[in-house]
Design a protein that fits this description.
By secondary structure, this protein is mainly α. Helix content is 73%, strand content 0%. The protein has one domain. The longest helix is centred in the first third of the chain and has 25 residues. The two termini are 14 Å apart.
Length: 195
């Protein structure tokens, strides 16, 4: 009999913490507490860093994932970190350019989320459908930002914030998936087939 694959508890907590942080940061932007647009873009840039960093860590430690998806996770995570750095560091670039870069980085996260939701047969059908839906929503919202860059910058920022919010919920669901507490529920996770 093969050994059971177990996700380290610290990785679950990391996914949950990052998920809650994404929700909080997104809500700060959506509710607009009188922040400057540059501050909001900075908040969303840190959100992209958080998503990308977590994706890289998951690629290294989530043994439920096939080697192909672990590699894809790492690549998308590294690209996301690079794009977030471009959006954060040079403060002399226009805010619209930073928003555009964030949309590209987050759109890639949506693509990999759809691919993983479709291919990860260890997850329940409900959770796979949820992850795919979040991926599709992410792509649609980021495409909106990229196709209509001349719309009011505040609208573009809020649209991205909603995409980050959805990804925060997906990250929490991923962190809860497969925990003993949820055995036999929509968040249950089967053991991967031996390769």
């Amino acid at each position: 009999m093969t050994n059971e694959v177990e996700i380290p508890s610290w990785l679950r907590y990391l996914n949950l913490i990052i998920g809650f942080c994404l929700i909080i940061l997104s809500l700060i932007v959506i509710l607009n507490f009188g922040l400057a647009k540059t501050t909001m873009v900075l908040i969303l840039s840190f959100s992209l860093i958080a998503i990308s960093f977590t994706r890289i860590i998951n690629s290294l430690k989530d043994e439920y994932l096939s080697s192909h998806f672990r590699t894809a996770n790492a690549v998308v995570g590294a690209i996301g970190l690079s794009i977030a750095a471009v959006a954060i560091l040079p403060r002399d670039i226009e805010i619209t350019t930073s928003i555009y870069f964030l949309a590209i980085g987050l759109g890639l996260q949506g693509v990999i989320r759809i691919a993983m939701g479709g291919a990860d047969t260890t997850l329940s059908n409900w959770l796979r459908g949820f992850l795919i839906s979040v991926g599709i929503l992410t792509i649609l919202l980021t495409l909106f930002v990229m196709v209509f860059p001349n719309i009011n910058e505040m609208i573009l920022i809020v649209v991205l914030a909603y995409a980050f919010l959805a990804n925060g919920l997906a990250r929490i669901a991923k962190g809860l998936a497969g925990h003993d507490l949820f055995e036999g529920t929509l968040l249950d996770r089967k053991q991967p087939k031996s390769q």
